[in-house]
Amino acid sequence: MPAPERFSEQGDLICYSHTGKADKVFMLSSTDYDESTEYEQNFALVSIKYNPGTGTYEAHKSLFMTRGQAFSFGDFGTGLALTPYGNLWMTGSWWYDPISIGVKHVYLAEVNPEAHLLSQFDYGHEKLTFAWASSNEVATDRNGVPVIAGYDQDEEGNNKLFLASDTDHLKIYHYVRPLYQFSIFDPVSPATGNYADSAVDLNYPTAGIPLALVRSYASRFADESGRLGFGWHLNLLDMHIEGNPTGLDKARLVWGDGHAVEYMTSGKETEAGSTTVHFTPLGLQDSNFVLSGHQDEDGIYFELYNKKLDRTVIFAQATGSHWYPTSMFKGQEKEAPGAFPLNFTYGDSEITVEDMASGRSINFTLDDEGRVTQAQGSAGETVRYQYDANGNLAQVTLPDGSSIQYSYDSSHRLTMIKQGEATLLQNTYDEKGRVIQQKDANNQVTTFAYNEEDLTTTVTSPDGLVTTYSYDRHYRLTSVTDGAGHQKTFTYDDLGRLVRLTQPDGSTISYTYDYDGHLTSKTDASGHTTTYTYDDEGHLTSVQRPGGETISFGYTDGLFSSWTNPLGGTYALSYNDLDRLSSLTDPLGGTVNYSYDDQGLIHEKTGRDGKTVTYTRDAAGRVMQKTINSGAKTVTYSFDALGRVTSVSGPMGTVAYTYNSRGVKATETGVFGKTVTYTYDGTRLHSIAAGDFSITTQRDGAGRPLRVTDSFGHTLTCTYDALKRLSSISGPAGVEVSYHYGASGLLDTITYRRGGTAFRTITITRGPGGRIEAVDDEGAPALALSIPSLELSFNQMDEIQGATYDPSGRLLSHGGRALTYDLDGRLSSSTKGGHQSLFSYDPVGRRVTIEEDGVERRIVYAGATPIMELDASNHPTRYFLFGPGMSLVLSGSGELQYILLSDFRKNILAALDAEGTIVSQRLYSPYGLVLSEDGPWPVPFGFLGEAGIYTEATGLVLTRARAYDPETGRFLTPDPKRPTPELPESFNRYMYAYGNPVNLTDTSGLSPFDRPPLWLIPYLNVLPTLHPTNTLNAVALPPMSSFGSDFSLSLAESYVADATPIYSDRASDTGGGNPQLAPDPTGSDGLLANFDTIASSAGESEPPPGDPVAAAPGTGYVAGISSVPIIAVI
Fold this sequence. Notes:
This protein is an all-beta fold. The longest helix has 7 residues, at 1049-1055. The chain is globular.
């Protein structure tokens, strides 16, 4: 296509109208330009279209916008045809990247008075520059104001489009490419090469706005000095509004992480000496935010209101042309203290931010440059900040006295992070400030390359594998190709929304959207479609699965208030005056009630069975004690100066933790007095030790386990193929498990050998998208039990008809089995066929004793993984070393007893003795039913491996959180996590693996999404949520704003196929549905999990909902303390 004859290319905006799509669109500005803020009150869009008949570009459409209204929208010739068609609507989804500072794209829709769509504009901008021009062609707008439009030439002879009003001067905006499809990437943005870092230095629980001190760094802000020096921002103190100190004609909102949004006036109200001005963002921003300015005899202040969260920030502290927050509160019309506001008090050298309900506060001390030198919490915790001679933040000293050091180059870009003597990270930048090399704490180097538009083109991992990225002319990611040549491609509609994802095997997943950009359907690789509907406010109101099952959702005043399951059961939620959940009522009338203390924090929960759980807190709002039924059971918690859990005590005893200088767990002492010690090589776990037993891991340069050896000399050895995938694991007696991958890069064969001879082979047949269609298990024991077809029926709460349940929905009796539960709702006994099994738990919820036929076994854990079994006298009787496909069981004296071999679902298939002789083999149904067994099973693990303790007497699989019955394919108790509309499958609270055990597993008893499979990462739909340190392979599918769920949909979209039924309880054992992805056979829960993250959890993988105390993985912090959003106040 030839270059335009009359117009120079100044932009890449796209105009859509009833006459077709424009080839080029130019954005121009007119009056009231303020160079200090780059603020423009009026602007215009002019488009041109290529005419293939004449071979030239022709005028297409133009639009002049002022104060939020479209004054002109018509054909563009030598002048503007001006007609008042109506208002310009800003619609669709939008993305703003606070790290790379860019609106990715904006939808503008112009409608006539009857609301019929006339035209649409899709544009994005990073920053705007300007030039001068003039013209003598005149037209008028609908108010008769002269408008000059036309074209001219600049000094270089280039043609310029322009629009001017009341002046012959014109600023023309040169459009800069949109930063498309990327949100916040950690740690290097693929859109710009910007490096980002963040940390939570202080955090106090509150009932309203979070009182959290979050500091964030972005190398893109390296030349800007804030409260923490160059490049850094504080969420509470750096948020402000910039405007005109003498009037309300402009506003620029700067968020706490440094990114800014420009606003233009859109309306004015004057009454009794006061003026209120309403603002509209320049370019589409989140419509949930409403900005207004007020001017009266006392001066100017601004109000920012979040409609979705019903939160307001008042900016009234004026310093020159800047306004800073004075209060933030929940409920636009509520008054303190019931509204739980944060209140800001400013002094000459200090600022105090206080939560008015709890009295908790953070006091900031400032130096002469206005930088923070100290932040002290109301409980006495103090964080200190030091700066180098160039004004950079050089050191942060935490409340426990430990410190973190930062180094920078001459441009204030962060080059090194150290903690003590350890170097955690090193960055190297190019001349444009992009990160081109990054070295981690283990000296592993990742390199980045970029194109002329600053978009990432290649990322080379420490292994030398190169991932390649390509983009279209609108800077949207169009393909990702991994080091093995497997490619995913992305196709977009005219509005830039992802409509098709093509996977490496050629299969596709497609998406459709409504006018507002909400996802309306998703069709998986097998052609199964899930549909979504919404109300006028954009709330998800129903989800219909391919089989026709529908779940619907209701809302009251914007709050999620009810759901109706496919069985017709309706659950209702109610809230108190401050929008805190006060009750949950089930279809049969059972109710769970919640009450709150004077600080607005949960104080007591009363279950459907009348059981009460009461929480007692310290001055910092942390739970110090949990009491059940007025003292029938009490659990107490202790914390160190950094707020990390140091001990949890209950009826079974105490679990205690210590931490090393890097803040990761160093020791863990359980209720039986056994201490597990963790040592690290850099940031990688090197060994664990408990008494005479230890496990040591030797790694290659990329950190992959090569050799795992126990203290008694037994070794597991791993090898990898050229693409760095696990190729084999070998152990004692010549036993080996090998893995083969197909053309798509997915696992297709597992071979088990002893003495070099194969005795069992699993072959996986995959369909579109990598879903498993068939599994052939050659060498498995002959089928001894046919898969039963259960005829189960259910009530409105999804309970089995004919079974007995307690008021909380826990199964009490069914199929000849009687069950009881402890005060925490965990299985305490199972009686079947005259055999009784008893279970007890430590204070952090781990199952630590099992008693059967009068014999008690005790279990010692490293995190959530069992490593040792004791007798009733606490003498070791067995040790366990778990790997991805092979595990070892040792006697109490360290002799090898059994070699266990497992499949890609973690199920243990075979037990061999120390000589490599087969003792017993098993064949399981997808739901875990033992279909055949050719010898007595010698170990307490089977289905789900070490994550599912199995007892012959009960026939149950005891996962980490709940007991599971393979006969029914259901858990015995409902999922303790509250379901959400973003994950419809969560509303069937008994179902195992979302009714899809062929492709999903649930080793925690809480979710089939325990960890993203490491070897499947290139094929996941959404990675930012699942694997935040490796997000370059990701595209956000679909827009998370479709569900208004703050990205929570991404987890579901990564794994759950559309054919997975919402309410498919096991009536057959076919696996039900056609998911896209398979579980990880090679190590996500194997060596990398057992020996890298084994120290990361203080107990269960997730805390029970409503229980505010549980250690966050790897930190020792109370749940939620390490996940405060960067913009925590709004």
